[in-house]
Specification:
The protein is an alpha+beta fold.
């Protein structure tokens, strides 16, 4: 994906997650497994991709590493098959899809990051945002550290390399007890794969297993859709506040070492937006199916704010592709069953092949970009009452252009329902939300005014109460809803707000 294509995608005005991570241990084709897993996680980051492998150099009689990373989609970065077969050798690999939320999108920030230090070779890939990065960075620089990137991920490497603890596992644990914020990460040492989720568990991370001729192979990935493409068996989610070590002993016995980051395990604060938008509906995250949660979001939205036609005409419900589709199914089912006749239809077609676009003189850039991305199905929309289901409204600019496009298809009435509360606050834990001043929910007093601004006959956001009713609940598990209510579970470094704005 070119930088122009990325800019178009950014300006479609959706929140962005900042990465997908993968780890592979004990597979004869580790890089190929990592490649396909990354392909499944492409939705978590389209700016860049990278894979690092460790292999034993017979000539030098020691472990070495190989890597390939570059800007663009996974298919572009690894377009030459020989990269996977001849360059990225070895039975261990970690991989990363990047979408920047801290640090610019320059090439130096592309992960995984790999170092050779007094403890050997270490490679790391990270999903999330640290909230005390600048404080730690200043302390490390004062002690002589030289940073090569602007990414908060590099902080982990400096902390590990400076640790006086013996062994990589203890060094990693010490680093994790020093940083603060959101992280799901995979690390590769010369003899093991380490995976960890921060004490509050903002971002998902799961473990899978594949049987091969050389024994069980283990896969760690942000979402379980990465296991499906590989034919891997889902084992479990990595718990919040947990570090898991997978090594040769794991292959022989099936037992993984597990460590706590903090002695006192806090209540989890899973990012609720992972269910609303980020994760693929065919994935299991935090040990629960995304599809079921999204359908429930749609059902609760219909219970809270049904759409009725005064003439009794059948209402047509459809989602803004792709994340809105599953919720629209749930909405249509309840809206039709409990109130009157409703049909789920495909009313918008999304192009997945935007490519490079040129704006003609006099064209409205925003409206043209929406037309490039979406096209309404006039036969579904014309002369009918329409309700459009979407996951969120950020700046509102794209929603306004999209509703205008649907209006041109001639609906009888046009309504919009959102499967989340209004977004009013920026995120510092790994989502790319704009500043408070740019969020449309802060420009108007109520949803009626927002509805008029984006051009619909009625608008309703799902309430916080119904949102929380829609997600799974179990002891010790809570949710981060900071983007809706401003209640940040972890203290924010005074410099974190500046980083988030500049990202």
């Amino acid at each position: 994906m070119s930088q122009i294509d990325q800019k178009i995608d950014r300006e479609i005005d959706k929140p962005k997650s900042n990465c997908g991570v993968v780890g592979v241990f004990n597979h004869p084709h580790a890089s190929i497994m990592a490649y396909y897993a990354l392909h499944s996680l492409q939705h978590r980051g389209q700016e860049a991709a990278g894979i690092t492998t460790f292999y034993y150099d017979e000539e030098r009689k020691k472990k070495r590493f190989a890597y390939t990373k570059g800007e663009g989609l996974v298919l572009d970065v690894f377009s030459d098959p020989k990269i996977l077969t001849d360059v990225l050798k070895g039975d261990m690999a970690i991989a990363h899809n990047r979408y920047s939320t801290t640090g610019s999108s320059k090439r130096a920030n592309i992960q995984p990051f790999t170092i050779t230090y007094h403890g050997g070779i270490l490679s790391l890939a990270h999903n999330g945002n640290l909230t005390n990065t600048m404080t730690l960075r200043k302390e490390l620089e004062a002690e002589g550290a030289i940073f090569q990137t602007t990414s908060d991920t590099e902080t982990f490497l400096h902390l590990i390399a400076r640790s006086k603890k013996k062994g990589a596992k203890e060094q990693v644990l010490e680093a994790l007890r020093t940083v603060r914020g959101a992280y799901s990460l995979v690390l590769m040492t010369e003899d093991c794969l380490i995976a960890a989720r921060d004490p509050h568990g903002f971002r998902p991370l799961s473990i899978g297993k594949i049987k091969t001729e050389q024994g069980d192979s283990y896969i760690v990935a942000s979402e379980t859709c990465a296991f499906d493409i590989l034919g891997a068996e889902y084992i479990r989610t990595i718990e919040h506040n947990e570090v898991v070590v997978i090594d040769r002993k794991t292959v022989e016995t099936g037992i993984m070492e597990s460590y706590k980051i903090l002695d006192q395990k806090p209540e989890a604060r899973h990012c609720i937006f992972e269910y609303i938008y980020f994760s693929r509906p065919d994935s299991k995250i935090f040990d629960h199916n995304v599809d079921k949660v999204r359908r429930k979001l749609g059902k609760n939205l219909a219970v809270e704010s049904p759409v009725m036609d005064p003439d009794g005409q059948k209402v047509i419900a459809f989602g803004v592709p792709d994340s809105g589709n599953t919720a629209a199914l749930g909405f249509a089912r309840v809206n039709g069953r409990d109130y009157y006749s409703t049909a789920f239809e495909i009313g918008l077609i999304r192009s997945h092949y935007v490519g490079r676009t040129f704006i003609a003189p006099g064209q409205d850039n925003r409206e043209f970009k929406v037309k490039v991305k979406f096209n309404p199905v006039k036969g579904v929309i014309e002369h009918r009452p329409i309700v459009v289901i979407d996951d969120s409204i950020v700046r509102g600019t794209t929603s306004k252009s999209l509703m205008k496009l649907i209006r041109e298809a001639g609906p009888k009435t046009l309504h919009m329902r959102i499967t989340s509360p209004p977004i009013k606050y920026p995120c510092y834990y790994g989502m790319d939300f704009p500043s408070r001043e740019e969020l449309i929910a802060n420009d108007f007093d109520n949803e009626e005014e927002i509805g008029k601004a984006i051009g619909v006959d009625s608008l309703h956001y799902l309430s916080m109460k119904k949102l929380l009713e829609s997600v799974p609940h179990e002891p010790g598990i809570g949710y981060c809803t900071a983007c809706f209510d401003g209640n940040y579970p972890i203290e924010i470094d005074e410099h974190a707000t500046k980083l988030a704005t500049e990202a």
